[in-house]
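Class prep. Protein, please:
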Amino acid sequence: MQEDRIKALVQVSALRFQADQARLAQLLAKERDLRKNLQDLVRQRNARAASATRADDPATIAGADVQWHAWVDQRRKTINTELAQLLAQKSDCLARVQRSFGQDQAAQELLKKVQMARLRPRYES
């Protein structure tokens, strides 16, 4: 009876650990996407700055270039804010993953001890 309850505990702890790992994977994917978006914006801004050195550039003449740079700056600020929030969530999630991993390992070890204790009398007789 006790062994059945511990097996159930092992299953629950394994599921929780897997769920926490899945949440962490989602956060890591989102972090990767945000960082890529930031890199793309910087790359596009640098490319535009290099190509806008001509005085007859239509975007520069129309003033669209200034507006576009302002939009890029605003977008980078927004992405950096999202990234900071995500990094805080990631830190909390890492702590949950570590805790659920430890609980899973403890439950597995407890099951092993109970199983060994159940088998031990057979070896002694």
